[in-house]
Amino acid sequence: MRVFHAGSCSLLAICLLGAAITAQAAPLDKPPPVPKHGATARPVEPVNSAPKAKDENNPAFHKALLEIAGQYTRYQLSDERPRPAPERCALSLPQLSQSGDGGSHGKKFYYLYVKDLAPYLKHDKVKPGQALVKESYKAIPTKTGPSQKVDYTLGDKYGLFIMLKMPPQTVGTDEGWIYGTVTPDGKTVTGSGRMASCMSCHLSAPHGRLFGVKAAR
């Protein structure tokens, strides 16, 4: 038979109580992490952060861009005549972007199709749903006249350059703008989202990322 003395039990109880209090008061080695975006919210990248590799061809926008590629010829032309494309407008295709040929980067002409032409011509504030498509062609140099001056004629279709306006806070866009490049047949997206090559020009555009009719003429 084991015999417990009252004094020993009291001392044991005091020791256990003291240990429990000490354990509760002991500081944690590291404080628990504080969620930056709330306990359940998904992290959201800053809208104007610098483009990353994943921004150059975001698959989330492919469906919308392909739909535009299939219907843009029903939009209105901003001008009946083709216009020379900027030097930086190049499709995101390795065989083109790595080419030393000037026709791969500059020396292109395009027709500009606009989904809602009236506000574009008036430089009105751009609303979500607006879309623009540059239908571009390779420029073929030809010499004309007695002076043999170099002129250009339209060659093969080069590809489609698309801009689609979404709500400004749409993740993966440039203030709501999606930039996209699509192959000439309109079936394959080669770039989509916050494309650095497009943003390098359009960030300085005077009309909400658009250059407007003055740049097209």
Series of secondary-structure elements, N-terminal to C-terminal: HHEEHEHEEEEHH
Beta strand %? 15-25%
What fold name goes in the CATH topology slot? Chalcone isomerase
Report the total helices: 6
Q: Output the radius of gyration.
A: 31 Å
Q: Please bin the fraction of helical residues.
A: 10-25%
Concise summary:
This protein is of the alpha+beta class and 217 residues long.
Structure commentary:
- By secondary structure, the chain is α+β, with helices and mostly antiparallel strands.
- The protein has one domain (54-216): 3-Layer(bba) Sandwich (Chalcone isomerase).
- 23% of the residues lie in helices and 24% in strands.
- The protein has helices at residues 6-25, 62-71, 94-97, 117-121, 196-202, 213-216, and strands at 76-77, 83-84, 108-114, 131-144, 149-165, 177-182, 189-193.
- Strands 1, 2, 3, 4, 5, 6 and 7 form a seven-stranded antiparallel β-sheet that branches.
- A hairpin with a 4-residue loop joins strand 4 (131-144) and strand 5 (149-165).
- The longest helix is centred in the first third of the chain and has 20 residues, at 6-25.
- The radius of gyration is 31 Å and the shape is globular.
- Mean pLDDT is 76; it is low at 1-17, 19-46 and 93-105.
